[in-house]
Amino acid sequence: MQCRITDLRYKEIINISDGARFGYVGDAEVDLVNGRVISLIVPGPARFFGLFGRGEDYCFPWDSVKRFGEDIILVECDQRQPVRTPREKRRWF
Description:
The protein has 93 residues and is an all-beta fold. The protein has no helices and eight strands. The strands form two sheets. It has a four-stranded mixed beta sheet, with no helix packed on it. Strands 3-4-5-8 form a four-stranded antiparallel beta sheet, with no helix packed on it. A hairpin with a 3-residue loop joins β6 and β7.
């Protein structure tokens, strides 16, 4: 099975150990020098119907990815929620 980076946006990330669904891939961190994917990033949950923004993003290291399917990506995490990384603050001015 071949997959492009743009196709990752339509794949949902699910934890193997407890079956938790984290959401769809929003971004991928890529090392351009070595040509490797470092991690997959899923946007955090919406706060109060999306009016107050989103929570912190979930970051899944490439080592935690176990299997790709047609529409899901299986990962193995020790905790209920993986290590989170805050998204860079964007300035609008």
